[in-house]
Write a structure and sequence with these properties.
single chain; mainly beta; about 55% strand; globular
């Protein structure tokens, strides 16, 4: 089983609907993010729209959370104990995990709107 321990940087975010049709790229196509996992079972993630300026009327997309995690090689579950969205507190954030070469690919469950996101991460540190 591959190790997820370390720090990862977001390199690509994609979205599609239930039929696989591409949706607008999350985070305005300029997503910036980091996720860290330590050997003691703690993780922290942050993702934000990294554009310097947003179009008028557009709110900056931002999300962060942390907590204790378990990972079985294909499924990551984090019990959230701090988050930018209070609705996540105490929840289990579940991500399906796969790899594309050296990249880690995380797939959260579909959003209430039916949008499916795929986030691709590159390891930048083993710590």
């Amino acid at each position: 089983m591959r190790s997820i321990i370390g720090t990862w940087r977001l390199v690509k975010a994609e979205a599609h609907d239930a039929s696989g049709k591409a949706l607008p790229v999350p985070y305005g196509g300029k997503g910036r993010g980091r996720v860290t996992f330590n050997a003691e079972g703690r993780m922290a993630a942050v993702v934000v729209d990294g554009r310097p300026e947003l179009p008028p009327g557009v709110a900056r997309d931002y999300s962060s959370y942390c907590g204790n995690y378990t990972f079985d090689g294909t499924r990551l579950v984090t019990r959230v104990d701090a988050a930018s969205d209070p609705a996540r507190l105490g929840s289990d954030q579940v991500r399906e995990v796969s790899y594309d070469g050296d990249f880690m690919v995380l797939r959260p469950p579909p959003r209430p709107s039916g949008e499916h996101r795929v986030l691709t991460w590159e390891k930048v540190s083993d710590v």
